[in-house]
Every structure is written in structure tokens, then in C-alpha cells.
Amino acid sequence: MKELLLGNAAVARGAYEAGAKVFSSYPGTPSTEITEFAAKYDEIYAEWAPNEKVALEVAIGASVAGVRSCACMKHVGLNVAADPLFTVGYTGVRGGLVVCVADDPGMHSSQNEQDSRHYAKAAKVLMLEPSDSGECKAFMKEAFVLSEEYDTPVILRLSTRVAHSQSLVEMEPRVEVADKPYEKDAMKYVMMPAMARKRHIAVEERIDKLKALAENCALNTVEINDTKIGIIAAGTGYVYAKEALPSASFLKLGIVNPLPEKLIRSFAEKVDKLYVIEELDPVIENHVKAMGISVEGKSCMPLIGEITAALVKEKLTGAAKSEIKNIAEPIPVRPPVLCPGCPHRGMHYVLKKLGLRVTGDIGCYTLGAMEPLASIDTCVCMGAGIGMAHGMELAKGREPKTVAIIGDSTFIHSGITGLINTVYNKGTSTTIILDNSITGMTGHQDNPTTGKTLKGEATKQVDLEALCHAVGVDRVSICDPFDVDAFEKVVREETAAEEPSVIIAQRPCALLKSVKYEGKACVDKEACKNCKACMRIGCPAISFRDGVVIDKSLCNGCGLCINVCKFHALSKEAAQ
């Protein structure tokens, strides 16, 4: 039986069919759904970990105990998990261990275009790259087999298009794999220097075996057609190139680390002109050039962003671009915006009003950098805002006053250590934790602050106020960011204090099913002074056309605009 599956769903299905038992991940687009789909199978234990490092460590522990396990993350999450990844490359595995990593060419939901293939090469581990949902399932199953056969963690590399596209997948039954017996083996799993030196020898021997595997593995395939053009590609690059030039010859790589040198050389000898089609960095191209083979890649294909079949055809054959009909009416620019009723909007309004220096973080609230809110000065990576606020005060003093903003899930992920650093080193910056009761940006996943597990079971809930007190913060306030006057008063007080402080801005995400506002905002034209204060909150339901206008189809009745208006020109209609 075949089903139409997302690439991410197919990866989860592959793990299920392969007999995997443990999943530990941190949500991050475009990888999130892998673990959400895995959690639907009763035979698989699946959890959200506080961050990617912990997730991989959990999966490693399960592997060493003898079961097939997996950790999933997006490309920047692999940075967080790099520490255990490099060392588990030395220790090897017992039960199969797969690390699913989804890269994001084009930065649809990411702060950079990092290429995870570099990690596989640096860590000297096997990396597979599927090109569609069918291969996602098949490669995932094969990854567990190869992991155990070659005593290596295996990275399954996806991209946004593969993860979020659908294609047909053959559904097969689960095969229960017997747990590997646990045996104490300090020489293999305790990486003290003396043991690690011996394991490094094993790593080099393993990479040689993996190179031999790549030369003859069915995951790498050769298609000889018209030999005028030969294309080496993997993943999305293969799909685009195949669509653009179906009659060309192809070396399709399913194993992208290590690369098969003999296979590449043999293929190159069969074609007149050789190209490498790959998104992001010229990883394959540089390898082929280092072999002394003439090849073109980034000389005609972009180094930045995604590629398309049309672009491949244009660059490799000179075919003219298809004409795009011009639309008579200009299309308005529509930048991303916080949702109507978003609890972060009131906070951004206050921070901009006070002219504070704001170090931001990764989350929906990063949209507060956009006009008209425009409150955020920086955003680098998960948890960076707290450390950066401390660093700014060290460099420039306390004027302008600095606050760090961070979501509740992000604070658990990597903000706690930054706060400890501020307290320990006698900093005075203020941290605002945006407690919206969920992990919002990646689609409403539970986290340690929500009191529920991935599978919806009740669990212990982290008390953010108690946690902040426990690390040494004496000044901890809880405030509703929609009560803008009270929130402004608290921010003024805490930023004036000569010691570190935390404000927990507490209001649930407007998209949660439990959040039900009543009534829509309406305007009293007589009372309205056209001061446009309500426009400064950046709500998409509010516009100004010969006066303030409320779009009833967008307004959800949150009431923030009413709190902002000093002339009582805004109020709520009675609920219909």
C-alpha cells in the first residue's frame, strides 16, 4: 500500500518500520514534524528535550543501552549538538543511532544558510541525503542498518523542500529488532585521553571502510543517457537537474559523506562536460576538483539560496527564461507581522516608547524588529540575548539602558546559563522572559514550562520565577504585557535597579485553543484625536484611512489597542 507523505512523515515512518524505539529532539523548522509524526507510533518513545545537545545525548544513551534511537533538529540546532556529535563519532554506537538534520536553503525560517555536510566531514561520520519522501523512508531504514554495521552515528540530511514536500511512499510493516545486550566497555565509551587516542584510530579505519561502501552502495546510482552533459547531484539538486535535463547522464549520490572517488572518476570519464548541481556550499564540487577532474558548479549556479529546475536549464543549456506576465496593479509589500492578539506586541510597544537598547533572541517576538514596533537591536542565536546584554553593559555602561528579551522555551533551551553568568559576574542588566505558555514559532509544541510532554501527558512544570530566584536573581516580577501602563512602570523600575532583574511577561499565545477573547474593537470617531498611538502597536487589524479603521475580520478582541488609547476612543463591541 502506498500513501502520500511529507518527507518528514516518511522519515518517521522509516524509523518506525526499522524498529526504532527512542526519539529525543528539539523543535526547529523544517525538522519539527519528524518527531511529531514519530510520537504517533505507540512503539516509539518520543520527547521534546530542552535543547538539541540534550536531545542527542538522550539518543546516544539509548543507543549505548542497545536500542535504535534518533535525534532530530534543524541545521542551527546541530551547532548546539556538535559537542556530543563529534565524540560519539569516536565512541561509535551499540544500537543504531541516526541524527536527522534539516538544512534551510533560502532561509525560510532561519538566521543563516549553514551547510550541514561540513559537520559530517569534520566529525568523520556517514551522511545520507534523500531526494523525495520515498527515499526519506528508505534511507532512514538503511541508516539504522549502516549505523550498526559500521559502528557509526549516521546523519540523515534533509532540506526544506524535501522535508515539506509530498510524494508516494510504500508502507511496510514494522520489524522488531532485538535490543543489543548491554556490556560495560570503558575503553569504547569513556572518552578519557588514553581511550580517545585508540578510538581515533578506529575512526580512521572506519572512514576507510565507509569510503569502500560508498563506491558500491546501491544508494549511489549512475544513469547513463546522453553523455554530452553529466551531472553529479544529491537531494534537491538531483530533483531539479533531472527535471531540467531528463536526457542528461547522472551520478546521483545518496551518500554525501564520504564521497565515492572511484565512482566519480569513472562517471566523469564517460561524459563530455561535467557539472555538480548542489545548493549552498560547493562541497561536492570542491571534492571533485581536488581529484583533478574538470567540473563546473558554482561558476554557473548560485552560492546563496535555493535553485530551481528553470535555473538549472538556463545555466546549463542557455535556454531562455520563461516569460512572466506583468500584473497591471502593483502588489503591495507585505512583511511578516505578529498575529492579532500576540502577547509580545504590548512589550515591544513599551520598550520602543522607553527608548531602550534591546538584545533579542530566536522566536516569534523577533518580528518586533520590524516597523512600527522596531524595538529590537540584535538577534544572533538561541539564548544569545542575555549574554549580549551583559556584554553591552560591560562595553558601554548602562546608558542607554539595556534589556534582553527571550521566550520561555528559548530560556529553557539556552538562556539559563546566560542569566547565571550575569548574576555571577555582578551584571545589572534586565531580562524579560516572554512566557506565552507554548513554543510558538515552530507550531505550538509543549516544553518544560507548559506542564505537558510531547505525547500530551501531564508532567512537572518548571516554575520560572523560582528558577530565576534559585540562580541568584532577587528582583523577579510577573506582569501582563497588555497592561501597558503597569508594564511600563515595572520596566522603568527594573532597568533603574543596580542589580540584575527579571520580568516575566505572562500572557498566552493568542492562537492557543484555550485563548478566547470576546467582542471586537470599535472606534468612537468623535473621541478619536487621530493621534495614531494605536497604529504604533503594529496590529494588522488597525489601519488609518481618513481616521482609524478596525478590520473586524482580523480583530480578535484582545483589547491591547484599547489599553493604549488615552482618549478612550476605542472600546469593545458586545460579543455577537
Strand and helix layout:
Elements: E1 2-6, H1 7-17, E2 22-25, H2 32-38, E3 45-48, H3 52-65, E4 69-74, H4 75-91, E5 97-103, H5 117-123, E6 126-128, H6 133-150, E7 154-159, H7 160-164, E8 166-170, H8 186-189, H9 193-216, E9 221-223, E10 226-233, H10 235-244, E11 248-252, E12 255-257, H11 261-270, E13 273-277, H12 283-290, H13 309-317, H14 344-354, E14 357-359, H15 384-396, E15 402-407, H16 408-424, E16 430-435, H17 464-470, E17 475-479, H18 484-496, E18 501-506, E19 521-523, E20 542-544, E21 548-550, H19 560-564, E22 570-572
Parallel strand pairs: 2-3, 2-4, 4-5, 5-7, 6-7, 10-11, 10-13, 14-15, 15-16, 16-18, 17-18
Antiparallel strand pairs: 1-8, 6-12, 9-11, 19-22, 20-21
Helix pairs in contact: 1-2, 1-6, 3-4, 10-13, 14-18, 15-16
General description of the model:
The protein starts with a strand and ends with a strand. 51% of the residues are buried. The strands form six sheets. A seven-stranded mixed β-sheet has the order 3-2-4-5-7-6-12. Helix 1 crosses helix 2 and helix 15 runs parallel beside helix 16. It is α/β, with parallel strands linked by helices and 576 residues long. The mean pLDDT is 94. 36% of the residues lie in helices and 18% in strands.
Give short descriptive properties of this protein.
576 residues, alpha/beta, seven-stranded mixed beta sheet, five-stranded parallel beta sheet, 36% helix, globular
Total DSSP helices: 19
In quaternary terms, these chains amount to single chain
> What portion of residues belong to β-strands?
15-25%
Q: Based on DSSP secondary structure assignment, what is the total number of beta strands?
A: 22
Low-confidence stretches: none
What is the gyration radius calculated from CA atoms? 27 Å
- Provide the structure class: alpha/beta
